[in-house]
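Instructor's aside before we start: the two examples that follow are unrelated to each other. I chose them only because their records fit on one page, so don't look for a connection. First example below.
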Amino acid sequence: MLELRPNCECCDVDLAPDSRDARICTFECTFCADCAERVLGGICPNCGGELVRRPIRPAAELANNPASTKRILKAEGCAPRA
């Protein structure tokens, strides 16, 4: 089950469980749409995988399957993709 991480690893902007601006790779590294597209060029800086829109868990399911509250942040930020 997806963790639904609460923030962008690059800029630390909040990403609610129902955010359509969240992007993830197959390892669930999580970024906002702005960082994913403008800074990272759609490629995860951690694994090299494609960043795609994170699915939204229905609100009724969040009660029994809550989103993660653990924030992950790259201390050095994200360098623009060359």
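Example two begins here.
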Amino acid sequence: MAQLDVEEFLERFRARADAVKARGIPPLEGEARQLFVQQAEKDYLDYSLIGNAAWSTEDDHLVLKIELA
């Protein structure tokens, strides 16, 4: 199994968050448009939380710490 580069892993999530924020809204109307926007907001939140997490290893586990304040 390949060795995990945690910083590179977190950078991929930061890049995904940036991509979600930068992408446009496709030509959708009504409920489809609303659902697309809601999903984009959730994607951005998820990716940015993970991308900005502090990390450590404990007992052979990767521990991500996410500040909630």
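Residues 30-51 form the longest helix (22 residues).
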